[in-house]
Amino acid sequence: MRFPVSCLCAMLLAQSLPAFAALGGAPGAAQASNPQASSTQADSVRAKVAARVTNYNGYSVSETLEPSGTTVKEYVSADNIVFAVSWQGPSMPNLQQLLGSYSEQYVAAASVPHAGRRAVAIQSDQLVLRSGGHMRSFAGSAYVPALLPQGVTPDDIR
Amino acid sequence: MRPLTYLVCLLSSLLLVACGGGGGSSASTTPTTPPVVAPSVQNSVSIVVDSGPNTSSGQSVGAVNSPYVSVTICQPGSSTQCQTIDHILVDTGSSGLRLISSVLSGTAALPALTDAGGNAIAECARFADGYSWGSIKQADLRVAGEVAKGISVQIIGDNAFPNVPSGCSGSLVAENTVAAFRANGVIGISSFAQDCGSACASQALEGWYYTCPGGTCAAAALGVAKQVGNPVAAFPQDNNGTAIQLPAIGSSGAAGVTGTLIFGIGTQANNALGSATIYTLNSSGNLSALYQGTVMQAFFDSGSNGLFFADSTIPNCSVSQGFYCPISTLSRSVVNTGINGRSSTVNFNVANADALFQSNPNNTAFNNLAGGPAFTSYFDWGLPFFFGRSVYTAIEGATAAGTVGPYVAY
Question: Matching InterPro entries, A to Z (chain B) (predicted)?
Answer without folding.
Answer: DUF3443
